[in-house]
Specification:
By secondary structure, the chain is an all-alpha fold. The chain has 9 helices and no strands.
Length: about 220
Amino acid sequence: AVTMAGDSSPPSRPPSSRPATSTTTAAAVALHKEQQQQIARKTLPRPPSGARAPATEDDRPIGASTLNSTLAAEDSAAAAVNYDKILKLLTNRHTQLNYERHVHILERLHKKCSSGIPLRDAGALQGVLEVCVARVLDQGVREYVAPLGALVRLLALPFGVAASSEAVRDGGAAVALLSTVSRLASQPQHTALLRALCETVQQLSAACGPSSLGSSSSSS
């Protein structure tokens, strides 16, 4: 720059293109911090393969009392029989001719009731056996013979009674159930069913003891 004569002011300098020192320092610090974080993420130790996460509350072993109550609930649920579903399977127009499936469900019913039929189920079971007896006697469906005979033999076992009121409430249903299976004696050609019925009657007679009529006859 040319200095004019008599001008005592210092020559002007061009503005600097270098950024402010404080701005440069803050950017450098932020960049360094980010680099350190990236390095830390890459070098963190990873858990070995197959290692399990810490056990949560659901993973802790259950106590013996909780396990026993759970198993008892499952056994109770397994013992319940859905007779409405069985009856629907036997009579629904889409499944009423599926005898193989009927036999399977009747065998499962026998297995669930193998220790005795609950008295509260006598009415529902009577409805199922009424359909089976009618198809054997009236339609000649021989597929029912074996499972029906097994169910008839269960009637020789004492009915399961959970409350004293069941004897009053469901006693008539038990009589109707025995009356339904007694129809099998009307056609002696079904020897397997007739044998099952006779064995059941004999066991029931032995369990009840001699009748008063029999006692009076023998005494006379």
